[in-house]
Design brief:
The chain has 119 residues and is mainly alpha-helical. The chain is built from five helices and three strands. It has a three-stranded antiparallel sheet with strand order 1-3-2.
C-alpha cells in the first residue's frame, strides 16, 4: 500500500469517527455486538438519527451488521480501532494535564493585585 492510499484510508476512518455520537456507538460496541435497538436505548437518541450514524459507520467499514429476523446487530469490524480510541483518550488526558500545569504555573507567576493606591 503506498503512502497516499494509506493516508486516504486513515482519512476515511477519521471522517467516520468525526462525530461524538459515532464515537459513542463504537465505544458501546467495545464489549461486543449490540442490536440497533440496544444502541438507540443506550444512546438516548432518535431511531432515524441512530440509523444515519450507523449507515456512516457501515459505509466507512468501521462496523459490520448482521440481520436476525427483524433485528439488526452491529459489531466493530476490527478491534484495533478500540486501541486507537484508547490512545486518543490517553492523548486527551496528557494534553489536559499539560494545560492544567501551564495554568497553575501562570497563576503562580501572575503578580498579585495591589490593594493600596499610590497617588
Amino acid at each position: 500500500m503506498n503512502d497516499d492510499a494509506l493516508r486516504q484510508f486513515k482519512s476515511e476512518i477519521f471522517q467516520g469517527l468525526a462525530n461524538p455520537t459515532r464515537i459513542a456507538i463504537v465505544e458501546l460496541l467495545r464489549d461486543g455486538e449490540l442490536s440497533a435497538g440496544q444502541l438507540i436505548e443506550r444512546l438516548g437518541i432518535e431511531q432515524a438519527n441512530a440509523s444515519q450514524h450507523l449507515a456512516v459507520l457501515r459505509a466507512k467499514q468501521i462496523v459490520v451488521s448482521r440481520k436476525v429476523g427483524n433485528q439488526v446487530y452491529y459489531s466493530i469490524r476490527d478491534r484495533a480501532l478500540i486501541e486507537v480510541l484508547e490512545i486518543l483518550r490517553r492523548y486527551f488526558y496528557a494534553q489536559l494535564s499539560t494545560t492544567m500545569n501551564l495554568l497553575k504555573q501562570a497563576a503562580r507567576e501572575t503578580p498579585k493585585s495591589r490593594t493600596g493606591s499610590h497617588r
